[in-house]
Amino acid sequence: MDITDIKNKIIEKDRDEKEFVQAVDEVLTSIAPVFDKHPEYLKMNILERITEPERVIIFRVPWVKDDGEVVVNRGFRVEFNSAIGPYKGGLRFHPSVNLSVVKFLGFEQIFKNALTGLPMGGGKGGSDFDPHGKSDGEIMRFCQSFMSELYRHIGPFRDVPAGDIGVGAREIGFLYGQYKKLVNESSWVLTGKGLSYGGSLVRKEATGYGLLYFVRAMLLDHKDSLEGKTAVISGSGNVAIYAAEKAMALGVKVLAMSDSNGYIYDPKGIDLDLVKKIKEVDRKRIKEYIDVHGDAEYHEGAKGIWQIKCDIALPCATQNELDEEDAKILCQNGVKVVAEGANMPCTHKAQRVFLDNGILYGPAKAANAGGVAVSGLEMSQNSLRLSWTFEEVDERLKEIMDDIYRTCADTAIEYGAKDDLVVGSNIAGFLKVAEAMMAQGIV
Ligand code: NDP
Ligand code: 2IT
Q1: Which mutation among 112, 189, 372 tests ligand 2's pocket best, with the greatest number of atoms within 8 A of CB?
Q2: 343 C-alpha to center of ligand 1: Å?
Q3: Are 306 and 256 in a shared domain?
Q4: Nearest ligand by distance to the CA of 131
Q5: Which of 252, 341, 384, 403 is the most buried (most CB within 10 A)?
Q6: Is 432 tagged catalytic?
């Protein structure tokens, strides 16, 4: 069987899992040139092995609302690949979570984690639970119920979850408390923990800061810089907020941000302290921004954000939030860089538009790897029983993002696809995992 037959076989098997098929299709298409140099990977059927999760856990999560109603949600953990280290990846709480979404995220995580250079395998989990509008008590009871099953599958040498959409510091705290109560051990199994109980400085900021370090490296390699540029950032969660913070610190004017209801456009530059208060402290909607800044605009519907003219577009909300039409408009408006803070935010056709128009395009696996990289550094600090300073962690994060950029750019050149970081990131991530799988036999 050649690579196309193998791809078709894999896709056929899971054809109903739309997001998973999309992620697999992209990776398998772009790594095709590898097999001319490494026919042994085909012989050992690395492709079918790497696209089949080592283990999928699906479980019931019953919990009680404040008014006494008993609710049942579905929990997931996909332990995808442990060739280079313990399964590692976030938990997502959002009504759209299903097996396809968790598998696509877990699959992407394998290659992303490999690119960080740290010894972490790939995994992902979550639930179709919707945290919006829930009380702290409801969130706590849900997290405790979720962990009452998950605890038996995870461990510091086995599987180390963290946050993702809908799972931030509050949820990690409740999950960790329940884990510790059940196993009676301070084994620091989650990352993204609070600073008072084993968390790492810079973890909160890491994905957003890392994204900007990556964009800076892309621009520098093309004899350009961030200074004086404009940016549009979708989302207003953990990744978007700290991407905006670092962008501003590096001389970029951020014009717009969004949530799932709509977007704000403030030509003077976004007031980030206000966005933080609305989203992080009050947990409200982004439209409240215009109650304070009456001269800014609020538009219903998140997608309109891509019509705003900007130099840099950073999709930081969710998968497939930027499609071919959006990509064409961004190109017409002169966008120079698109880098993905979210996982798979650009559709395959949107990706093609950017690459065909010579836009600098930073794919998620590379561009948003800063979050999991600092999770890896949190694990290192926990093992050492030490805490590094903010500056120390931030410096390591910068080095890691610069290294990821260099590795992806060099790999793209080596495989005859200069500046195509989709090819570069997928091949570089794949080679590391495939080599480890080859060494460990057929398991
Ligand atoms: P948060 O929950 O903190 O924020 C998510 C943001 O995206 C919110 O503004 C939310 O709006 C918006 N959003 C979520 N779902 C949708 C949707 N279906 N349509 C439109 N907007 C939506 O999550 P994060 O910031 O942590 O995650 C954002 C993205 O970054 C995800 O793709 C995640 O996988 C990825 N990522 C996260 C990392 C991390 O360390 N946290 C690391 C690497 C990638 P609303 O408030 O209305 O729900
Ligand atoms: O998508 C991601 O890389 C994350 N949500 C972070 C995972 C982690 O383990 O820190």
Answers
A1: 372
A2: 9
A3: yes
A4: 1
A5: 341
A6: no
